[in-house]
Amino acid sequence: MSMQNINVALIGNPNTGKTSVFNQLTGLNQQVGNYPGITVEKKMGFCKLPNNFKANILDLPGTYSLNASSIDENVVIELLLNKNDKLYPDVVLLITDVENLKRNLLLFTQIKDLEIPTILVINMSDRMKSKGISLDIPYLEEHLKTKIALVSSRKSLGINELKNLIVNYKSISTEPCLNASSIDVEYFDKLRATFPNQLLYKLWLVITQDVNFLNLERNEILNSFTKSHSDLKRLQQKETIKRYQFINDVLKNGLKIDTTIATDFRSKLDKVLTHKIWGYVIFFIILFAIFQSIFEWSKVPMDFIDSSFATFSALADENLPAGVLTNLISQGIIPGIGGILIFIPQIAFLFLFISILEESGYMSRVVFLMDKIMRKFGLSGKSVVPLISGTACAIPAIMATRNIENWKERLITILVTPFTTCSARLPVYAIIIGLVIPDERIFGILNMQGLTLMFLYLLGFSSAIFSAYLLNIILKVKGKSYFVVEMPNYKLPLFKNVAINVIEKTKSFVFGAGKIILAISIVLWFLASNGPGQNFENAEAIITQKNNVTSQKNGSENLENQINAYKLENSYIGILGKTIEPVIQPLGYDWKIGIAVISSFAAREVFVGTLATIYSVGGSDNENTIKNKMKAEINPITGEKVFNFASGISLLLFYAFAMQCASTLAITKKETNTWKWPIAQLIFMSSLAYFVALIAYQAFK
Known about the structure:
- This protein has 31 helices and eleven strands.
- With 701 residues, the chain is of the alpha/beta class.
- It has a seven-stranded mixed β-sheet, sandwiched between helices. It has a two-stranded antiparallel ribbon with strand order 7-9. It has a two-stranded antiparallel ribbon with strand order 10-11.
């Protein structure tokens, strides 16, 4: 009796042990070649099976799904679509990793839709006990409509059972796990009616993937069902969401993870880091250490940059020919750029710590940990990713909400993400904290400035959560969502990866902000150096006449300062500032701070650069640092320092709540496709910022 051949295809995500299973089945009976016309490696082998069967086994390239993004992924799809191929599988072995079933099963459900007998091979089963994992195999087989093989390629367990399943592949159901037409009923009904003899999901792959399909003319299908690229992407996203919803429902009962009985090092560490009490305590301690370090480690380089730019301004003023251009350079450009570059050390340290947390695998634990809290406020763990990303910048963070399938949760996340303290707020916080919070220690170790910075970050996150809670009550939108997060193994961060991340993000921040600050600094310098009417033009005569300076000690120096101050008040920017001063005075701000607040609507970090430019134009001492100039500023009406404790706290709270970012409003409009939500966002956050700052100033005054 001749041996019967069975074509077997090994398919799976990268790093699931697919090649190890292939080696266990085939041993030395392997050959390697290339697929016709392409350089992707083709690995084939054979093994003897019970009952006089032989398996021709093809090890296909690793792929995460049938949504191909590379040539080797195309190989998988083209083989599965082409029944005329001599290697077309009689049965597929879908190799999965027991620790990452959620992610792996996406590909499984797609292959099942192609109605090919598919055996679910769960690899690394020897780790189940140490990980505290238990599987309800009969339940999973029933709901996934397949047969399951538990194997350990590392310990050669379950291989014989797998061979028996391959022999009996004809008994495996070819029924899909879920109905593909549920992605878009009208679209798929029309597709089925036009091509009644073709498999529906094959048609869908032909439309969405750039692959060959020999049973039908590709152009015929595409001409009949043309959709825009964005529409197809939307449907693909909808498909992925529905599959993960199905997977979550199945694994809710079929997969149990009890970390209390897990024995491996990672599980022991996870027990602590994701503990319902200690997990939050440890996260708080880590945050505390980060913000203490940001202030402690950055003092020396910040002072060096600050004094260097003060020196550059003085050198430019002394060595360049007197005139408008020199004034622009020494009083406009150099102070404005210095006002942002001074914060490179703090921003770099912030990105350094975030990169280390991400590289080590701890950030995924934070996302998992926070999911439990987020659900109480109408969000899911998926919302944590944008909120944490918002510590860098709200714009990519808002774009990251696209993976939240529930519209209500996504909208709420978009609206509250700007509350998270982004890196653009850091320059404002740093300069104000340095001015009004004493550089003292509590118990000899806790730096008050670092504590204040941490409080502001926690305030931003808490505000986002509380706002989400209110919006969840106000917005009457029904929906159900699912949260999938993969827990990576712990690892030592690679220095190269961390360094590249810090350099790229810091460079992006500095150059992005630098362009805006340079432009605004030039405009502000012009507005502060020019003014309408006789008061500005005749400032010297008016001040000289008003004061009998000849009898004053150090009269020439006082005269110059008084003339500069009078010209600044009567310049274009002074007139604008004086106009808005009645509105901001109750917050403890003078007209100069008012100008900085308005100009920083373009970008929050412009605040410091604006004041640097205004104080440089308004004073004759170019050698003084921006920090010292702000510290010495006196309110002429009250005689008190402008930046005192009350006004400083008011400013910190104003920037903690205010929108102050035109780019964020623009991306909110783009993501929601209407101006309604960004306008509501702007009005609410600005109003909240004003009233909180007002209450704070009046309370501490």
